[in-house]
Design brief:
Number of domains: 1
Low-confidence stretches: 1-24, 337-341, 346-380
Strand content: under 5%
Shape: globular
Helix content: over 70%
Mean pLDDT: 81
Structural class: mainly alpha
Number of helices: 16
Largest sheet: none
Number of strands: 0
Radius of gyration: 22 Å
Order of helices and strands: HHHHHHHHHHHHHHHH
Distance between the termini: 46 Å
Length: 380
Amino acid sequence: MTNRSKLNGALKMENEIGPGLQGTRLGPRISLSLLLGIAVLAALLVFGDVQAMAHHLRGFPWKWVPAILGFTLLNYGLRFLKWHLYLRWVGTPLPWTASAVIFTAGLAAVLTPGKLGETVKSLLVWRWWGTPISVTLPVVFVERLTDGLAMVLLAGLGISAYPAGLPVLSVILLGLSVLLLAAWIWPQAASFLVRLAGWPILSRILPSMLRFWASAHRLVQPPNLLFAIGLGLISWGAEGLALALILHGLGIPLDLSLAQRAIFILAFATLAGAISFLPGGLGAAEASLVGLLLVQGWPRDVAATATALIRLATLWFGVALGVMAWAWLVPSLGRIAEIRTRPAVLDFPAPSVEKVVGLSKDRPEPEANGDDPQFGSALS
């Protein structure tokens, strides 16, 4: 059997797998994360003194809650825009409704180690649109990559308030840069990998690897990368402003300095939670938030109360939206009668790679029809 025959067979296998994948079974993991979240909240209550925190909560201007949640929704909205555009850039033009439901469902999956549960979004796209998982999986990872780069920049704006955090930011930036470089060198790496197509094990996974790498390479091209980081600066900066508003509601004067410090604190704490690989960053993010708020000279009862409120307004608000999306999504999945394969159209730089993977840039784009009968039955 020739190398090309082996690779085409592996590609066919990739397109056929999926219904048996168990990626959508997030319930038990989320339940365990909820228990961990309750334990973290209990620890905050003990640390911040229940009576003192209750006093702050009674005096908190709850009429500001819509504005606080509005900043969070702005974050989610801009991140959804990035997700939707990324799908189109890798040749998967999902209708807006389907794309929004899948993205929102992914918010519940953050309660997994390192947010790896968000990869379930690629499975859902495959179930509805037929695009191989290896094509859309880079979308999830590049989302996290560009968010990380944006948060490093935001944290860098206020690092003077906590110089001890500079080594941590430097290590994170180095790690993200290595991942970025790996996606950039796709043409050279692809040519090397194709030469190894005769290896029995590699020949089975090479089509998936090439599709994954090609998608990632397209997403990190300078214009796309700069656009995504710009969206990240605005979206994560908005959540920082939500923290500033919470701190103001707890009696801290609102000014430009408070906004800058709040953005730095939230960005740094979110990064700390991400690299901890704990579900949703639970424990690590809260500890970082409390610690950085204490470094600013604010009392521990204020620090604990602000931490509890911002996590409710960001992490747990997003999880609640995600759970509601899943409640609507699961019955829709059950109504899908069949899977249709719609390979993404990617412009592979190396002709040899294009032949190996079996894609042609002359193949017409899949129809982006919002009245798609499969979507109509699934999303009605």
